[in-house]
Amino acid sequence: MNDAFDFLVRKDITFLNFGSFGSCPKEIFSFYQKKQLELESQPVSFIVEDGINQLNNARKTLASYVHCQPDDLVYVTNPSYAINTIAKSLRLKKGDEVLSTQLEYGALIRAWNYYCEKKGASFIQQRIPLPFSTSDEVVAAFFKGCSDKTKAIYISHITSATALILPVEQICEEAKKRGLITIVDGAHAPAQINLNLNNLNVDIYTGACHKWMMAPKGASFLFVSKAHQNWIDPLLISWGYQSDNPSNSLFIDYHQTAGTRDFSAFLTVPFCIDFMRRNNWEDVSDKNKKNTIDWALRLMNRFNIEPISPISPSFLGQMFAIPIYTPDCVGLKQRLWHQFNIEIPVTQLDKRNFIRFSIQAFNDWEDYIALENALQALEKSGFLKF
Known about the structure:
Layout: E1 14-15, H1 18-21, H2 26-41, H3 43-66, E2 73-76, H4 79-89, E3 97-101, H5 106-119, E4 122-126, H6 135-143, E5 150-156, H7 168-177, E6 181-186, H8 197-200, E7 204-208, E8 220-224, H9 250-256, H10 264-278, H11 281-303, E9 319-324, H12 329-338, E10 342-343, E11 346-349, E12 352-358, H13 365-380
Parallel strand pairs: 1-10, 3-4, 3-5, 5-6, 6-7
Antiparallel strand pairs: 2-8, 7-8, 9-12, 11-12
């Protein structure tokens, strides 16, 4: 493992799972701890005054980074919190439908099913055939699930289990033509790909800062265009409702104030953005993306595997999902960890399994060789097939 940028990830393991929760470089984590110390040294003034001023500034900095208006974005702890807020608030009637895909994150499939069932609506998981060859195939397949009952679409920008960059720009454009509310789960997008919310033309978007932006755990955001802010209720009613000191935005008042919490992770996000700027992170990310494609091509050739999409920058960022077959998904992940000291997710989708590797600045050729050797050994043992 490369020591570049001095991440806190253990040096004695092969860590190929940055996409799940990310990790902080020491410099970022030290800043985070500094903010926590500020909180603990005078928690009252920090929570009700100093920290709130810093939080407003942090929101403006993040809004500039993802290209949106500051009052259209609030910090939340994670994308699941954000999507639960939206799914609970979405005005659905009996018989209405929310159109999605079978590629979505499992926890949020559960959230949508929960809220749709309570309202008598349906969460439609339209099948996107794998493999596919073009973005147009994805768009066409997706809208086959659209009907006159469809009120909104929900889709991942980058899928979790399969690590695919989906053509959300095209999908949002078509959805707008059909008068549908557009909701995008961009948990994996910020700092893995260039994110411009103004150009995306999306109604609602959530992204994680604690993945590829390298912020501490529990730092994410919810963006809502002004046309849709009026119907979104906060999950937690607090001082922002009928505020004694209202801002110029009810959306900010309602969703930024959520009771006592440590929002030091939120305040660290501007430092993360500055860290990336100082270290030419676009170049670092481009190198990681090139390595992702190189590793993917080598593994596909080495094990004679058909990929689920073209191996190109149009569909891949810094992650790649290797299609495999195994009788024991959980057991395979445990073997990779306990037998080979490799931290990597093994996922299941449509009765298929995937091993998804992520590449960050600290990953090097030795990590790749470790993974290739482990896959070869497990194939020989019969524990997995390609």
